[in-house]
Protein backbone atom coordinates (compact mmCIF):
# COMPACT_ATOMS: atom_id res chain seq x y z
CA UNK A 1 0.00 0.00 0.00
CA UNK A 2 1.28 3.49 -0.86
CA UNK A 3 2.66 5.37 2.11
CA UNK A 4 0.12 7.91 3.31
CA UNK A 5 -2.79 6.25 1.49
CA UNK A 6 -6.19 6.05 3.18
CA UNK A 7 -7.85 2.63 3.06
CA UNK A 8 -11.58 2.19 2.53
CA UNK A 9 -13.23 0.43 5.51
CA UNK A 10 -13.32 -2.87 3.58
CA UNK A 11 -9.56 -3.58 3.30
CA UNK A 12 -8.03 -4.01 -0.09
CA UNK A 13 -10.84 -2.47 -2.13
CA UNK A 14 -9.86 1.16 -2.65
CA UNK A 15 -7.17 3.54 -1.47
CA UNK A 16 -6.47 7.21 -2.01
CA UNK A 17 -3.02 8.73 -1.87
CA UNK A 18 -2.36 12.36 -0.89
CA UNK A 19 -1.71 13.19 -4.55
CA UNK A 20 -4.94 11.53 -5.68
CA UNK A 21 -6.92 13.31 -2.98
CA UNK A 22 -5.46 16.60 -4.19
CA UNK A 23 -6.57 15.95 -7.78
CA UNK A 24 -10.16 15.25 -6.63
CA UNK A 25 -10.10 18.19 -4.20
CA UNK A 26 -8.90 20.60 -6.91
CA UNK A 27 -11.39 19.31 -9.48
CA UNK A 28 -14.32 19.66 -7.07
CA UNK A 29 -13.24 23.18 -6.10
CA UNK A 30 -12.61 24.40 -9.65
CA UNK A 31 -15.84 23.00 -11.08
CA UNK A 32 -18.29 23.35 -8.19
CA UNK A 33 -16.63 25.49 -5.52
CA UNK A 34 -16.74 22.50 -3.15
CA UNK A 35 -14.19 23.01 -0.39
CA UNK A 36 -12.76 19.63 0.66
CA UNK A 37 -10.40 20.26 3.55
CA UNK A 38 -7.44 18.02 4.44
CA UNK A 39 -8.72 15.25 6.66
CA UNK A 40 -11.67 14.49 4.35
CA UNK A 41 -9.82 11.70 2.56
CA UNK A 42 -11.86 9.00 4.29
CA UNK A 43 -15.12 10.72 3.37
CA UNK A 44 -14.05 11.06 -0.27
CA UNK A 45 -13.10 7.41 -0.68
CA UNK A 46 -16.24 6.25 1.11
CA UNK A 47 -18.48 8.42 -1.09
CA UNK A 48 -16.73 7.57 -4.36
CA UNK A 49 -16.34 3.84 -3.82
CA UNK A 50 -19.79 2.97 -5.20
CA UNK A 51 -19.30 5.26 -8.19
CA UNK A 52 -15.99 3.62 -9.07
CA UNK A 53 -17.38 0.10 -8.68
CA UNK A 54 -20.45 0.93 -10.77
CA UNK A 55 -18.36 2.34 -13.59
CA UNK A 56 -15.66 -0.34 -13.47
CA UNK A 57 -12.73 1.74 -12.23
CA UNK A 58 -10.25 0.23 -9.78
CA UNK A 59 -8.24 3.32 -8.83
CA UNK A 60 -8.85 7.02 -8.20
CA UNK A 61 -6.23 7.78 -10.85
CA UNK A 62 -8.25 5.90 -13.48
CA UNK A 63 -11.43 7.64 -12.39
CA UNK A 64 -9.84 11.09 -12.52
CA UNK A 65 -8.57 10.48 -16.05
CA UNK A 66 -12.11 9.54 -17.07
CA UNK A 67 -13.53 12.74 -15.54
CA UNK A 68 -11.01 14.92 -17.34
CA UNK A 69 -11.75 13.31 -20.73
CA UNK A 70 -15.54 13.08 -20.37
CA UNK A 71 -17.06 15.70 -22.69
CA UNK A 72 -20.66 15.00 -21.68
CA UNK A 73 -20.29 16.49 -18.19
CA UNK A 74 -22.25 13.58 -16.70
CA UNK A 75 -19.20 12.29 -14.87
CA UNK A 76 -18.80 15.59 -13.02
CA UNK A 77 -22.48 15.57 -12.07
CA UNK A 78 -22.06 12.08 -10.60
CA UNK A 79 -19.01 13.33 -8.71
CA UNK A 80 -20.87 16.21 -7.08
CA UNK A 81 -23.83 13.91 -6.33
CA UNK A 82 -21.48 11.56 -4.51
CA UNK A 83 -19.60 14.21 -2.54
CA UNK A 84 -22.55 16.29 -1.34
CA UNK A 85 -25.54 15.38 0.79
CA UNK A 86 -29.05 15.60 -0.66
CA UNK A 87 -30.94 14.52 2.45
CA UNK A 88 -34.02 16.64 3.02
CA UNK A 89 -37.70 16.39 3.93
CA UNK A 90 -40.84 18.52 3.90
CA UNK A 91 -40.85 21.60 6.17
CA UNK A 92 -37.28 21.22 7.35
CA UNK A 93 -36.51 24.10 9.77
CA UNK A 94 -40.24 24.91 10.00
CA UNK A 95 -39.77 28.40 11.47
CA UNK A 96 -38.66 29.60 8.05
CA UNK A 97 -41.88 28.46 6.41
CA UNK A 98 -43.97 30.14 9.10
CA UNK A 99 -42.03 33.39 8.74
CA UNK A 100 -42.25 33.22 4.95
CA UNK A 101 -46.04 32.86 5.01
CA UNK A 102 -46.52 35.74 7.46
CA UNK A 103 -44.19 38.03 5.50
CA UNK A 104 -45.91 37.25 2.20
CA UNK A 105 -49.32 38.08 3.68
CA UNK A 106 -48.26 41.23 5.54
CA UNK A 107 -45.91 42.78 2.94
CA UNK A 108 -47.23 41.64 -0.42
CA UNK A 109 -50.91 40.87 0.13
CA UNK A 110 -51.97 43.14 -2.74
CA UNK A 111 -49.03 42.35 -5.03
CA UNK A 112 -50.02 41.14 -8.49
CA UNK A 113 -47.56 38.22 -8.25
CA UNK A 114 -45.11 36.58 -5.89
CA UNK A 115 -41.76 35.22 -7.06
CA UNK A 116 -39.44 32.99 -5.08
CA UNK A 117 -36.16 31.24 -5.79
CA UNK A 118 -35.02 28.04 -4.11
CA UNK A 119 -31.29 27.89 -4.93
CA UNK A 120 -30.65 24.29 -3.91
CA UNK A 121 -33.90 22.44 -4.48
CA UNK A 122 -32.45 18.94 -4.08
CA UNK A 123 -35.26 16.40 -4.59
CA UNK A 124 -38.01 19.02 -4.35
CA UNK A 125 -39.34 18.85 -0.81
CA UNK A 126 -38.26 22.40 -0.04
CA UNK A 127 -39.72 24.22 -3.08
CA UNK A 128 -42.97 22.26 -2.94
CA UNK A 129 -43.22 23.00 0.78
CA UNK A 130 -42.74 26.70 0.05
CA UNK A 131 -45.51 26.69 -2.55
CA UNK A 132 -47.89 24.83 -0.25
CA UNK A 133 -47.16 27.18 2.68
CA UNK A 134 -47.84 30.22 0.53
CA UNK A 135 -50.98 28.85 -1.09
CA UNK A 136 -52.35 27.94 2.34
CA UNK A 137 -51.59 31.37 3.83
CA UNK A 138 -52.65 33.27 0.71
CA UNK A 139 -56.01 31.54 0.51
CA UNK A 140 -56.81 32.25 4.16
CA UNK A 141 -55.80 35.92 3.86
CA UNK A 142 -57.31 36.54 0.41
CA UNK A 143 -54.00 37.59 -1.11
CA UNK A 144 -54.10 38.85 -4.67
CA UNK A 145 -50.93 36.95 -5.68
CA UNK A 146 -52.31 33.49 -4.85
CA UNK A 147 -53.38 33.16 -8.49
CA UNK A 148 -49.96 34.17 -9.76
CA UNK A 149 -47.38 32.39 -7.63
CA UNK A 150 -44.10 31.47 -9.31
CA UNK A 151 -41.19 29.56 -7.84
CA UNK A 152 -37.86 28.95 -9.57
CA UNK A 153 -36.05 25.91 -8.16
CA UNK A 154 -32.45 25.19 -9.15
CA UNK A 155 -29.81 22.64 -8.28
CA UNK A 156 -26.46 21.57 -9.64
CA UNK A 157 -27.51 17.92 -9.88
CA UNK A 158 -29.59 16.72 -12.81
CA UNK A 159 -30.33 13.53 -10.89
CA UNK A 160 -32.10 15.23 -8.00
CA UNK A 161 -33.87 17.63 -10.36
CA UNK A 162 -35.36 14.70 -12.27
CA UNK A 163 -36.70 13.26 -9.00
CA UNK A 164 -38.02 16.67 -7.94
CA UNK A 165 -40.00 17.07 -11.15
CA UNK A 166 -41.70 13.72 -10.52
CA UNK A 167 -42.85 14.90 -7.08
CA UNK A 168 -43.13 11.41 -5.60
CA UNK A 169 -41.90 10.81 -2.04
CA UNK A 170 -41.67 8.14 0.61
CA UNK A 171 -44.12 8.84 3.40
CA UNK A 172 -41.37 9.34 5.98
CA UNK A 173 -40.26 12.44 4.05
CA UNK A 174 -43.75 13.87 4.68
CA UNK A 175 -43.99 13.28 8.43
CA UNK A 176 -44.24 17.05 9.15
CA UNK A 177 -46.89 17.77 6.53
CA UNK A 178 -50.11 19.25 8.08
CA UNK A 179 -53.16 17.03 7.82
CA UNK A 180 -55.07 19.53 5.64
CA UNK A 181 -52.31 19.50 3.04
CA UNK A 182 -52.91 15.83 2.22
CA UNK A 183 -56.33 16.67 0.84
CA UNK A 184 -55.31 19.85 -0.98
CA UNK A 185 -51.83 19.17 -2.31
CA UNK A 186 -51.12 15.41 -2.37
CA UNK A 187 -52.47 12.12 -3.57
CA UNK A 188 -51.36 8.70 -2.34
CA UNK A 189 -50.13 6.18 -4.87
CA UNK A 190 -48.59 2.78 -4.17
CA UNK A 191 -47.72 3.72 -0.60
CA UNK A 192 -46.06 6.99 -1.61
CA UNK A 193 -47.02 10.66 -1.54
CA UNK A 194 -47.53 12.30 -4.94
CA UNK A 195 -47.59 16.09 -5.28
CA UNK A 196 -50.65 17.08 -7.32
CA UNK A 197 -49.98 18.20 -10.93
CA UNK A 198 -51.40 21.70 -10.35
CA UNK A 199 -48.86 22.22 -7.56
CA UNK A 200 -45.97 20.83 -9.60
CA UNK A 201 -46.79 23.26 -12.40
CA UNK A 202 -46.09 26.21 -10.09
CA UNK A 203 -42.43 25.20 -9.74
CA UNK A 204 -39.95 25.61 -12.58
CA UNK A 205 -36.93 23.34 -12.09
CA UNK A 206 -33.63 23.97 -13.86
CA UNK A 207 -29.95 23.21 -13.41
CA UNK A 208 -27.71 25.96 -12.03
CA UNK A 209 -24.18 25.99 -10.62
CA UNK A 210 -23.94 28.78 -8.04
CA UNK A 211 -20.24 29.43 -8.67
CA UNK A 212 -20.95 30.20 -12.33
CA UNK A 213 -22.56 33.46 -13.58
CA UNK A 214 -26.31 33.54 -12.99
CA UNK A 215 -29.24 35.94 -13.29
CA UNK A 216 -32.51 34.06 -12.82
CA UNK A 217 -34.47 37.27 -12.27
CA UNK A 218 -35.66 39.26 -9.24
CA UNK A 219 -37.45 37.73 -6.30
CA UNK A 220 -39.24 38.76 -3.12
CA UNK A 221 -37.76 35.77 -1.31
CA UNK A 222 -34.70 33.58 -1.88
CA UNK A 223 -34.00 30.32 -0.07
CA UNK A 224 -30.31 29.34 -0.10
CA UNK A 225 -30.20 27.00 2.87
CA UNK A 226 -27.42 24.60 3.86
CA UNK A 227 -25.51 25.32 0.66
CA UNK A 228 -22.72 27.72 1.59
CA UNK A 229 -21.28 25.30 4.14
CA UNK A 230 -19.75 23.50 1.14
CA UNK A 231 -17.78 26.57 -0.04
CA UNK A 232 -14.76 28.47 1.21
CA UNK A 233 -15.13 32.05 2.42
CA UNK A 234 -14.24 33.89 -0.83
CA UNK A 235 -16.76 31.75 -2.74
CA UNK A 236 -19.39 32.36 -0.07
CA UNK A 237 -18.84 36.12 -0.30
CA UNK A 238 -19.19 36.03 -4.08
CA UNK A 239 -22.42 34.01 -3.92
CA UNK A 240 -23.96 36.25 -1.23
CA UNK A 241 -23.17 39.38 -3.25
CA UNK A 242 -24.86 37.96 -6.34
CA UNK A 243 -27.87 36.68 -4.41
CA UNK A 244 -28.44 40.18 -3.05
CA UNK A 245 -28.56 41.43 -6.63
CA UNK A 246 -31.47 39.04 -7.24
CA UNK A 247 -33.57 40.35 -4.34
CA UNK A 248 -36.30 42.94 -4.72
CA UNK A 249 -36.05 45.79 -2.17
CA UNK A 250 -37.79 44.61 0.98
CA UNK A 251 -37.17 40.98 0.04
CA UNK A 252 -35.73 38.24 2.23
CA UNK A 253 -32.79 35.85 2.00
CA UNK A 254 -33.06 32.63 4.01
CA UNK A 255 -29.94 30.60 4.83
CA UNK A 256 -29.42 27.48 6.94
CA UNK A 257 -29.37 27.69 10.73
CA UNK A 258 -25.81 26.38 10.73
CA UNK A 259 -24.78 29.29 8.48
CA UNK A 260 -24.26 33.01 9.12
CA UNK A 261 -23.59 36.16 7.10
CA UNK A 262 -21.63 37.79 9.92
CA UNK A 263 -18.43 39.33 8.60
CA UNK A 264 -19.50 39.37 4.96
CA UNK A 265 -20.04 42.49 2.85
CA UNK A 266 -23.70 42.85 1.88
CA UNK A 267 -26.62 45.29 2.09
CA UNK A 268 -28.85 42.98 4.11
CA UNK A 269 -30.27 43.55 7.56
CA UNK A 270 -30.44 40.76 10.13
CA UNK A 271 -34.06 39.91 10.96
CA UNK A 272 -33.85 36.67 12.95
CA UNK A 273 -31.58 33.60 12.93
CA UNK A 274 -30.85 32.67 9.30
CA UNK A 275 -33.20 35.35 7.87
CA UNK A 276 -31.98 38.61 6.31
CA UNK A 277 -33.82 41.43 4.53
CA UNK A 278 -32.81 43.87 1.82
CA UNK A 279 -34.05 47.30 3.01
CA UNK A 280 -36.88 48.73 0.95
CA UNK A 281 -34.98 51.99 0.58
CA UNK A 282 -32.12 50.17 -1.15
CA UNK A 283 -33.77 50.82 -4.51
CA UNK A 284 -34.04 48.74 -7.62
CA UNK A 285 -30.90 47.53 -9.39
CA UNK A 286 -32.45 46.48 -12.66
Short summary:
Helices cover 40% and strands 19% of the residues.
What is the straight-line distance between the termini? Answer: 58 Å
CATH superfamily placement of the largest domain: Vaccinia Virus protein VP39
Q: What is the domain total for the residues?
A: 2
> Biggest β-sheet: count, sense, barrel?
7 strands, mixed
Net shape: globular
Q: What's the CATH first level of the largest domain?
A: Alpha Beta
What would CATH call the architecture of the largest domain? 3-Layer(aba) Sandwich
Helix-strand topology string: EEHHHHHEHEHEHEEHEEHEEE
CATH topology of the largest domain: Rossmann fold
Instruction: Specify Rg, calculated over alpha carbons.
Output: 21 Å
If strands are numbered along the chain, what order do they take across the biggest sheet?
8-4-3-9-10-12-11
In the predicted model, the low-confidence regions spanning at least 5 consecutive residues are 1-12
Helices, by number, come to 10
Helix content: 40-55%
Kindly describe this structure.
By secondary structure, the chain is of the alpha/beta class. The chain folds into two domains: 6-83, Chemotaxis receptor methyltransferase CheR, N-terminal domain (Chemotaxis Receptor Methyltransferase Cher, domain 1, Orthogonal Bundle), CATH 1.10.155.10; 94-282, Rossmann fold, CATH 3.40.50. The protein has ten helices and twelve strands. A seven-stranded mixed β-sheet has the order 8-4-3-9-10-12-11, with helices on both faces. The protein has a three-stranded antiparallel β-sheet with strand order 5-7-6. It has a two-stranded antiparallel sheet with strand order 1-2. Mean pLDDT is 89; it is low at 1-12.
Amino acid sequence: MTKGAVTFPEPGQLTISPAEFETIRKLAYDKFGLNLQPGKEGLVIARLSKVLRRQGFTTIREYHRHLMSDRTGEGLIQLIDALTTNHTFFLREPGHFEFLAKAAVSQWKDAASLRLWCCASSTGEEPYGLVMSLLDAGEKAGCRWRGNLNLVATDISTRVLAKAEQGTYDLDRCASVPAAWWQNYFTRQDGKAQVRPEIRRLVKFSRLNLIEPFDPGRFQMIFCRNVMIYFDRPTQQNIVSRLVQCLEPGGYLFIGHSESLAGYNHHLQYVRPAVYQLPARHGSRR
